[in-house]
């Protein structure tokens, strides 16, 4: 990838987690490294109350090759620590997942491992290793070893103003990753600032493939919406309006939302619920044209749109008066209501705003994912937790 034109200054690395102590003796493969984590180091979710500041223990049952350093992130069913790979001296990220309480977590874990193994791309987070469990009976946690990136786009946007150079370079890299994903017939489905990892050199890598799906053969979308819990603010309107067919450009809409957020430092469509989300979108884009209106296959969704008051489009130049006009032109083409008229990743890379980085010979595509790759998703309603566990175990035990 061309880097000679990258921004001449990096991003400030905002560390939101408090430091954690490092075990004096690294764990053996069958031992656990317990890391005290201050409860207050993570902001409580809105529906929870933080009632204690007492440190709790997080155990990492990993090989003695790794020295655990800091907790760098935590989610619904996993925690990520930075670690030192002692043989190479390389710092890595170790993602601990405990998926076996719910089938949904098992499915996400299976997708994540399979897809990270499949792709080898500069702008997609790489899987370096997977910790092998001692045996199937003791297999209760999954440890994925990945490249370590110092921060993510969400933290950067919240802590500093991004230059136009930064916006160009970050959007270019995001679209470069999407071109590879989409050429393999994969929809990411959960693109948002926190899923774009960054380092001080401004390198960007897309992560978190737990909601990814095949774009092929989605006549019934394999229960597409069942797990669709991606952040509403970055969700394409056709998903909420049930266009019946979801295409790769749902990810392009998310990129548009991310670009808008980079331009101003705040989300463009911070909807509180389904109706509010659509209202915010239409407040900016205006009432859909007749062509766009009839592109909505769901009669109920069309009636809902028809019931809303007429809205005039607000020019992006009015919302972002100081932005590069080329950035706003690209934004217009990414945030197009009708998915049939929205840019593809490949076309977006050719946009004049990204001219300084665009190189068609250095924007690789990926082989199409085999049809059987997502067989487990087609059968997910009939698979038991035990069957899913066996599938994950087989993936973990398969050499990279």
From TrEMBL:
Residues 45-56 have a biased composition (Polar residues). Activated by threonine and tyrosine phosphorylation. Its cofactor is Mg(2+). Residues 66-354 form the Protein kinase domain. Signal peptide: none annotated. Residues 1-56 are annotated as: Disordered. GO terms for molecular function: ATP binding; MAP kinase activity; protein serine kinase activity. CDD domains: STKc_ERK1_2_like. SUPFAM superfamilies: Protein kinase-like (PK-like). PROSITE patterns: MAPK, PROTEIN_KINASE_ATP, PROTEIN_KINASE_DOM, PROTEIN_KINASE_ST. Residues 30-44 have a biased composition (Low complexity). One of its GO terms (biological process) is fungal-type cell wall biogenesis. It catalyses: L-seryl-[protein] + ATP = O-phospho-L-seryl-[protein] + ADP + H(+); L-threonyl-[protein] + ATP = O-phospho-L-threonyl-[protein] + ADP + H(+). Keywords: ATP-binding, Kinase, Magnesium, Nucleotide-binding, Serine/threonine-protein kinase, Transferase. Its EC number is 2.7.11.24. The keyword Ribonucleoprotein does not apply. It comes from the Eukaryota. Belongs to the protein kinase superfamily. Ser/Thr protein kinase family. MAP kinase subfamily. This is Mitogen-activated protein kinase. It comes from Nadsonia fulvescens var. elongata DSM 6958.
């Amino acid at each position: 990838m061309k880097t000679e034109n990258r921004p001449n200054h990096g991003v400030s690395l905002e560390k939101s987690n408090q430091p954690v102590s490092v075990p004096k003796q690294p764990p053996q493969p069958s031992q656990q490294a317990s890391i005290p984590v201050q409860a207050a180091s993570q902001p409580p979710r809105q529906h929870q109350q933080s009632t204690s500041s007492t440190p709790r223990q997080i155990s990492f049952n990993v090989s003695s090759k790794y020295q655990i350093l800091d907790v760098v992130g935590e989610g619904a069913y996993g925690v990520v620590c930075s670690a030192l790979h002692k043989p190479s001296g390389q710092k890595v990220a170790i993602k601990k997942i405990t998926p076996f309480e719910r089938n949904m977590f098992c499915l996400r874990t299976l997708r994540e491992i399979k897809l990270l193994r499949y792709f080898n791309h500069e702008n997609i987070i790489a899987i370096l290793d997977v910790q092998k469990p001692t045996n199937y009976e003791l297999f209760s946690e999954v440890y994925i070893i990945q490249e370590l990136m110092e921060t993510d786009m969400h933290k950067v946007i919240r802590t500093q103003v991004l230059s136009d150079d930064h916006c160009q370079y970050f959007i270019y890299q995001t679209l470069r990753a999407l071109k590879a994903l989409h050429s393999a017939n994969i929809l990411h489905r959960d693109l948002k600032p926190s899923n774009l990892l960054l380092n001080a050199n401004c390198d960007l890598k897309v992560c978190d493939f737990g909601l990814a799906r095949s774009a092929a053969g989605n006549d019934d979308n394999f229960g597409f919406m069942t797990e669709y819990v991606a952040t509403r603010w970055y969700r394409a309107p056709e998903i909420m309006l049930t266009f019946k067919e979801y295409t790769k450009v749902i990810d392009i809409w998310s990129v548009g939302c991310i670009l808008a957020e980079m331009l101003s430092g705040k989300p463009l469509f911070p909807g509180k619920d389904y109706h509010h989300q659509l209202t915010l979108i239409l407040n900016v884009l205006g009432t859909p044209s007749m062509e766009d209106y009839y592109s909505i296959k769901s009669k109920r969704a069309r009636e809902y749109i028809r019931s809303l008051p007429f809205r005039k489009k607000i020019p992006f130049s009015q919302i972002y008066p100081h932005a590069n006009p080329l950035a706003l032109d690209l934004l217009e083409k990414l945030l197009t209501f009708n998915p049939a008229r929205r840019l593809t990743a490949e076309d977006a890379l050719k946009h004049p705003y990204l001219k300084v980085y665009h190189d068609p010979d250095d924007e690789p595509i990926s082989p199409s994912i085999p049809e059987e790759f997502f067989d487990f998703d087609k059968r997910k309603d009939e698979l038991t937790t035990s069957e899913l566990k066996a599938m994950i175990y087989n993936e973990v035990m398969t050499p990279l």
